[in-house]
């Protein structure tokens, strides 16, 4: 697991369009490699904590669509973490989202250089 930073070119960023129609970057909270080798890009939120969460999530889903990655905004509810593999309109309702089980994690720290090499870029 790699705890991503909140700014700077050395950290993994995803371009998205905010609710004002402006291009912006957001930084996923975690880059996680599972025991089976699957890589997740996850951005932790609580229900309705970030009005931009759906825009960020949907940009991340578009970003990972053609890559061997999974992830999105992840929300804790009743001691279970959930993420949606599809576009969302809100973080308030996690019905239909996939459960994420951190106990399946391998002990793995994402190399900082690799995180910097695969960060999103705004155009």
List key phrases describing it.
disordered C terminus, six-stranded mixed β-sheet, alpha+beta, 123 residues, two-stranded antiparallel ribbon
What would you note in describing this structure?
It is a single chain. This protein has 123 residues and is α+β, with helices and mostly antiparallel strands. Helices cover 15% and strands 32% of the residues. It is built from two helices and eight strands, in the order E-E-E-E-E-H-E-E-E-H. The strands form two sheets. Strands 1-4-5-6-7-8 form a six-stranded mixed β-sheet, with helices on one face. A two-stranded antiparallel ribbon has the order 2-3. The longest helix has 12 residues, at 53-64. Mean pLDDT is 78; it is low at 106-123.
Low-pLDDT runs of 5+ residues are 106-123
Q: Biggest β-sheet: count, sense, barrel? A: 6 strands, mixed
Number of helices: 2
Overall geometric form: globular
Number of DSSP-assigned strands = 8
Cα Rg: 14 Å
> Which structural category do the helix and sheet elements fall into?
alpha+beta
Proportion of residues in β-strands? 25-35%
The H/E string reads EEEEEHEEEH
What do the pLDDT scores average to? 78
Order of strands side by side in the largest beta sheet? 1-4-5-6-7-8
Distance between the termini: 28 Å
Helix content: 10-25%
């Amino acid at each position: 697991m790699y705890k991503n930073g909140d700014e700077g070119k050395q950290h993994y960023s995803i371009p998205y369009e905010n609710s004002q129609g402006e291009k912006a970057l957001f930084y996923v909270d975690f880059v996680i490699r599972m025991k089976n080798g699957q890589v997740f890009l996850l951005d932790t939120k609580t229900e309705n904590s970030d009005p931009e969460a759906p825009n960020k999530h949907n940009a991340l889903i578009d970003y990972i669509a053609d890559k061997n990655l999974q992830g999105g905004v992840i929300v804790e509810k009743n001691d279970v973490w959930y993420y949606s593999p599809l576009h969302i309109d809100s973080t308030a309702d996690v019905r239909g989202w996939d459960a994420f089980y951190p106990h399946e994690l391998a002990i793995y720290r994402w190399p900082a250089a690799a995180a910097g090499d695969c960060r999103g870029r705004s155009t």
